[in-house]
Protein 1
Amino acid sequence: MIWTFALLIAAAGIIYLSCETFVNGVEWLGRKLNITQTATGTILAAFGTALPESVVTLVAVAFGTDAAHKEIGVGAAIGGPLALSTVAYAVVGFALLATARRVGRARAAAVDADTRRLRRDQLWFLAIFVVKIGIGLVVFQFKPLLGIAFLAAYAFYCWKELSDDSGDEEDGIELEPLKLRPRDANPSMGWIALQVLGALAVIFFASHLFVQQISAVGPWLGLSPQLTALLFSPIATELPEIMNAIIWVRQGKERLALANISGAMMIQATIPTAFGLFFTPWHLGAPSILAATMTMLAILFLQWSFRAPQVKSRQLTYVGALYAVFAALLFVIPQ
């Protein structure tokens, strides 16, 4: 078990360092493609870091050899949004408060953000998420066809983000030199793509290592495989997004941190759901319904928190309590 914990810590460290390389590359990619900073976070960074867990979901539901594997895929599609809407936003809040000494207490307590855009994205997510959960409560034959609608919904979201130029005021942010070309003031697209893809590959394999160690820790703690999957796997698979948020907060790019989580939530609401509809009956049990309920409560809280032009850091930390409530209730509801 000591070796398991050592691998767990090592994998987390590798993910963090790889995410630093990834966010550096993806910012340059957004600059090269003439995409606003906010759209860089919601689309490029979110898609890149959400790709590994989306692939995991696809493999589980499409190539799983038994019903248990398919249930893991469905659970990941439900648990991912819960981890993002609670743990990820709470981590951003704590990271902001931790920077108080460096940036000043006033800025750490409340940061300027495009809250109008954040509220809009959360409402988009909530509408799609309610439909996705509603479909899982009923049984009918043409469910797989609805998977196409979820893919179309994400494509429409990307188009809206790319056509919204309200984030242009952030484009003057000075970028750090590309890590692969630290002395190049204007690196080529080839070097940028190499850094982004290379970092993603390392994140992918390190995330799988992290998930494997989490799976080993669960039985050691006396938890069933299902409880382990519902409690720890979502946090493990969303670790790249959480690491990205910490890195961007540390760099003073709070808008990018918030946009990355918001964009990742839209991916989790659509693409894994489409895979689940294509390859499984998509019928949700009590634990998944509990996770969905907590996710919707978190979104309602975030809508209230994003009502002002500034985001209050301490309010973001409160939303993490919903994940703790979910964990406690998970032990008392029928499995």
Protein 2
Amino acid sequence: MSKSVVIVGASMGGLRAAEALRNNGFEGQVTVIGAEVHAPYNRPPLSKEVLAKEVTHDAVAFKLRTQVEDVIWHLGDPATSVDLETQVVTTNSGKAFDYDGLVIASGLRPRTLELPNGKLSGRHTVRTLDDAIRLRTDLVPGARVIVAGAGFIGCEVAATARGLGCEVTNVAIDSFPMIRPLGEKLAAELQRRHESHGVSFRLGHGIKDLIGKDSLSGLILDDGESLEATVLVEAISSHCNVEWLANTNLDISNGVLTDSALRAVTTEGQSVEGVYVVGDLARFANPLFDDDARRIEHWNIPTETGKRVGAVLSAYLEQADNFAELAALPFAPLPSFWSDQYDMKIQGFGMPGLADRYELADGELSGELVMAYFRNDVLIGVVGIGMTSEVMKYRKQLLGT
């Protein structure tokens, strides 16, 4: 009898897993369950070039390749529970989907501020296409925009809003924007560049409350300062979409813990055959760095984990002779990320946030540059602004090639 796979999550990770199943010879039924009504699309441009233009599904939609033409897309109906014993996923509408293999790809959702006067219009997050469509409507010339959070998404939105003629202030509890992945030296330089474009910063501060009756007119910082605002973009962090797994014994304390084959792991430390995890939720140890299991939210991880799961899960379902050998292979993807801010093309590889020191390896701090990151004198990351060919040389070093 033909086997079936249910993939919970219809974003990049779920799509790549479906493609990889087919590419590895799995011929059974593949069903993808998605919370959104949209077919899979690319999220990173939503805070970059797409937000600066007309936001449409066509602008970000992935082209569905021929190998997934027969995949069943069940969209706009999120999974609400799974029974690992009977192997059934249930959705919000009450539909039940049997599976032989399960792929957990339900991703993240934005965390928002809990504020006494929080029920005002003008608040936005940037995670979904619909989020970006709503935000783009409010980013009109002269709008007073507060961006809460100074990570990559927050800084990308600030740069985009400034380019659209908005007055922009970034508020964050951090001492410098993007400091965690970049370190103080480069983060301070990027703050200077943002300020040269007219962005104001209130760093080392949180937001205490909002001002307004029905719509936002301002906010109050934790030191009592009031700022005018008609738009608030909250880019502070994320929640893992694991509530539908609450009735299982999987370790969902931070995403979903996996082994090196990306099989889900229980709270007792046992791998669950036939249940796999891809994308932002997967918490796995990467031997390129150490033995600590971490979630990695960089843009290439959904693709890398999707390929891995497609290969291992298809071998498991087909009872292939090489399944055990394949599952035992180390999984060591090199994280990579990119960010467009004004005319800056920022590209990074590795895990610079784990570094205990860094140094300017090439270029000038005020221009194009390459920053190298080390832990115990071992190169673990590189970030470049421009200088792509030089950055790629360090990427090869990270891969040991």
